[in-house]
Sequence to fold (336 residues):
Amino acid sequence: MPGLTCPGRAGIVVAMPVQTLAQSDGVDLFVPAAYDLAWSAVVLLLVVGAVVAVVLVVRALLRTPPDPVSLHDLADADPVRRSARRHAATVAGGAAGLAGLVGIVGSQAVATVDGLAEGVLVGLLPALVALAFLAAHAVGERTWPSPRTAVRSATLRHRTVDDVAPRRLRRLTWALATLVVVLAAVGAATAGDDGRSVTRVAEASTSTASPYPGAFYGVWLALGAMTVLAASEGVLRLVARRPAVPHVGTRWDVALRRLSAHRVLRGVQLALGLTAAGTLGTGASAAARVGYPGAVVLVAVAALLALAAIAVVVQPAPDPDEWAGTTADEAARAVA
Fold:
């Protein structure tokens, strides 16, 4: 390899190995970085593809076989219902695609950030992905096609989020957001003066470990969780107030709204669950390294929490035709 010599201050000659460039303007210096970026994107796409494949297989195993003539088949014969389903599926697919893209770009950004900002960005990555996911859903709900019939009908009862959002999933979302805030508060109360490490004094020895979700990280994590929760409630309001699907009946229209709300909450709870699991796991790992008893158990709890959040996403969403069919008798009794 050729060398470069230059005189030093005291007459010392310094030899520095250099790399010969194919072009004089040095554009090839950026080739390795571009190669690493492309390779990392390919790896991430493979990982995402593997996860999607596992989810599809699990959903196929959990799904019950349809009847020879099911409500879903009858609904597909209706062009209005088919169009509404297509729009809802397009919104969900676009939101998932945008979330995956933001996740890939965010992962690459983490690799280029140095210092303490890297830890903050890692902690906020699930929230950023969730906000992109919710933004796509918000655009989809705002662009929901309005009825174009000559005679329009509307329910006299004002729909609210409680009418369209699954209660258990919504409560789980609120609980996970609250858990993130509680973990951030506990971390801030138990961290050191720097807000990012934990210290344990035992007899004559002192042990310190980091990173630890103290105030330095916890404030951002709590703000991210509350922002995601507020944004999800806003999107759920859009779902409840969007134009009704004409000529399908009130029950089916509400059932389609429940499907959209279920999809929104599944993505949000996944982001909040991963944030809570990451916060708990990071704090417990640092506490275990300094010798706090029982901290290893919390690491296992964090792993179970992350798996539970993923398991909720795998659960299939309620089908509008089946839900409307099973609640038909109850709605008729309520009207009577």
Q: What stands out?
A: Confidence is low (pLDDT under 50) at residues 1-39, 64-76, 328-336.
